[in-house]
Amino acid sequence: MMFQSLYLKCAELNVCLQFPENWYITDTKIASLFQACSGNINVKIQFFETDSIPEIIGKLIFKDEVQCVFQSLKNICCYCGNYTIAESVDEIRKKTLYCRQIRLSEKQNHIAEVLCSSNVGKKHTVRSLLVWGGLPHILADFRRVILHSSLLAYKGKAILFTAPSGTGKSTQAELWRVHRPGAEIVNGDRSVLSCDGGQPYAHGIPLCGTSGITKNRSMPVRAIIVLRQGPENRIRRLGAREAFTMLFSECSVALWSREDTGTVTDLLIGIISSVPVYLYACRPDASAVDDLEAALDLAQ
User: Fold this and answer.
1) In terms of domains, do 36 and 159 share one?
2) Do residues 51 and 118 make contact, with C-beta atoms less than 8 angstroms apart?
């Protein structure tokens, strides 16, 4: 089987996606925005087509409706598909669309293999390949985490709006873009958080949800805003415990990995101790921009 390679910059990491030469990337614009050079690879994800998903070996360590994770002495295998709680091992294997293998002996080399059923087809997006490759787990290895958020760049720093879907993250980011010259939406739906040398950073990522907005930029974090809808604008700074609970619920974490959960916990604690996190119930109009900016300026 012949392969082709796609090199991406993702949250300041160089990622190599290697997949069969007869596969096609449909979102070429996003691929070009995040294109990286072929040297100094931090992570390599290899994709293979197979007519038969490998037999399940090892102990079941995690299961939900879309993922079953087994661990043996040599590998961690994540079987992904559409499952029910009561399914047997044989039924899991039959319903699996792809299986991600992480060799424990190579974990520190950051190499993952993804065995895909031929039913997945030939046309794929950058997003699907990164998700299949286990991006949240990979990022945790480098002390990074995906936050469900709209990422706004303003005066050289990041303001992040996070909340469950449908709350108004994209609406608030767009209001800033319209009413504050120089404000720029970097990503409408996802961002990556890191904390290097005690300074939290927000990074654009080639996952953008329904907004379709994503840019390859990184910047220091000014504040994180947990949004709620409200009849009037009311803002308060969250305490550390409350902020952690609200942020963790909006993070993408490989819950089957205790190590990842611990890493993300430590990362969020560091971020919360360095930048303010606010709970903001607000209206979907320009007054929400005025009141939030006033609160942020007052806190400086």
Assistant:
1) no
2) yes
Q: Are residues 128 and 10 in the same domain?
A: yes
> Which of 108, 133, 158 is at the close of a domain?
133
**∠ CA 55-56-58, rounded to 5°:** 140
CATH of the domain at 273: 3.90.228.20
Measure the N-to-C terminal CA separation of the chain; round to a whole number of Å.
Answer: 57
DSSP state of 47: E
Residue 176 shares a structural domain with residue 266: yes
pLDDT of the chain, 300 residues: tens digit per residue: 799 999 999 999 999 999 999 999 999 999 999 999 888 899 999 999 998 888 888 999 999 989 999 999 888 999 999 888 767 888 888 889 999 988 765 555 678 899 999 889 999 999 999 999 999 999 999 999 999 999 999 999 999 999 988 888 999 999 999 999 999 999 999 999 999 888 999 999 998 877 789 999 999 999 999 999 999 999 999 999 999 999 999 999 999 999 999 999 999 999 999 999 999 999 999 999 999 999 999 877
Last residue of a domain, one of 133, 158, 179: 133
Clarify whether residues 168 and 263 are in a common domain. Answer: yes
Domain count, the chain: 2
Entry pTM: 0.94
Q: How far apart are CA 16 and CA 8, in angstroms?
A: 6
In a domain, 263, yes or no: yes
**What range defines the domain where residue 100 resides?**
3-133
| Of 238, 227, 245, nearest in space to 277 by CA | 238
| Whether the Cβ atoms of residue 240 and residue 277 lie closer than 8 Å to each other | no
